[in-house]
Amino acid sequence: MMLWGCAASSRFTDRSGSRSGSAPGATARTRTPQSGDRVLLSLEGVASYYADDFNGKLTSNGETYDMHALTAAHRTFPFGTRVRVTNLANDKSVVVRINDRGPFKEGRIIDLSLGAAEALGVIATGTTRVRLDVLEWGNGQ
After folding, report:
1. Cβ contact 39:137 at 8 Å
2. Which CATH number do you get for residue 65?
3. What is the pLDDT of residues 93-127, one digit of tens each?
4. What residue numbers bound the domain in which 83 lies?
């Protein structure tokens, strides 16, 4: 009974109301944490980025979008969630904070800010396959 209370569980629901950590087009993966981090959930899928057209406008959580900040949009992760995004084509990674909703194109699992896309080397291609490692769930604000 004591162990049941320590079990990891998702703190959000998908559109159907079921508890879920995946998005359409995402592949769930388990992996061993590296360098002392604690990975709560891992997913693989396609990432894209957004920049100029949205810079200075409000994000879904009410912040002003700064295309140079290390932020991202996800359909269901709570706002404030910290996610390590790894570009599977070049093994570059960056930690972003979820502050917006999206992506709205089918088959994509995360929309990165320009700053995050630059750090991952995604600018030339526009999209790339990535692994998302949730490091800390946000509080939804």
Report:
1. no
2. 2.40.40.10
3. 999 999 999 999 999 999 999 999 999 999 999 99
4. 38-136
